[in-house]
Design a protein that fits this description.
Two copies of one chain form a homodimer. With 123 residues, chain A is an alpha+beta fold. The first copy, chain A, has helices at 3-21, 45-54, and strands spanning 29-37, 40-43, 60-71, 78-88, 95-106, 109-119. In chain A, strand 4 (78-88) and strand 5 form a beta hairpin.
Chain lengths: 123, 123
């Protein structure tokens, strides 16, 4: 599978899982994985999932606007940047977000090494 | 220098150079470097600088809103995600952008291996 197909498949899986049951996202992270979620920095699958589960909303929906990928090393690493809209609970107005994933191959699959998430505000 | 300081220093240098004289950005890229600029994908310092120089504006100013960095490997690689506002020529309304850089150490400095740039639109 080429890096564009991998990035697209991973991203769709990730947001579908996030939006339906984010308690199951831990399989995608390892002990060395890092998450920056807004101003919070975390390391390790357990801490990352605790943070994601603790986010104060019940219903959430990610809509992808742009998805771009590049090979990030000669070892099969893939870098993905997504911009999109986030719909939370009963709010009418989506919030724009930007997110980057650095994916590392492991056997026939990939895990998330780097994950940076930011809502987009004007300066 | 820690990865946060490196990321901040690199990003300020990059946007200052971009906004004052983007013909000089080639020193930051190598033959294996990749740029995704909106829907255009390019590889190599020469192609990347040609693209950046050809962008159809005279005056440009990047304003950083958020800057987040993480170590991207055990070799000193750094991943940086920036969101911000872009002011072009005489336009009054800034455009929001998102950009990610994957920086790789080389001697006492760093070069750009991955560079993905997107303006942020609503879906």
């Amino acid at each position: 599978m080429d890096f564009n197909a991998l990035a697209q498949q991973f991203t769709e899986f990730y947001y579908n899982q996030f939006d339906s049951d984010r308690t199951q996202l831990g399989n995608l992270y390892r002990d060395e994985s890092m998450l920056t979620f807004e101003t919070t920095q975390l390391q390790g699958a357990k801490n990352i999932v605790e943070k994601l589960v603790s986010l104060p909303f019940q219903k959430v929906s990610h809509r992808i606007t742009t998805l771009d990928a590049q090979p990030a090393s000669s070892n099969g690493d893939v870098l993905v940047m997504i911009t999109g809209d986030l719909l939370i609970d009963e709010e009418q107005n989506p919030q724009r977000f930007s997110q980057v994933f650095h994916l590392i191959p492991e056997g026939s699959s990939y895990y998330v090494f780097n994950d940076i998430f930011r809502l987009n505000y004007s300066a």
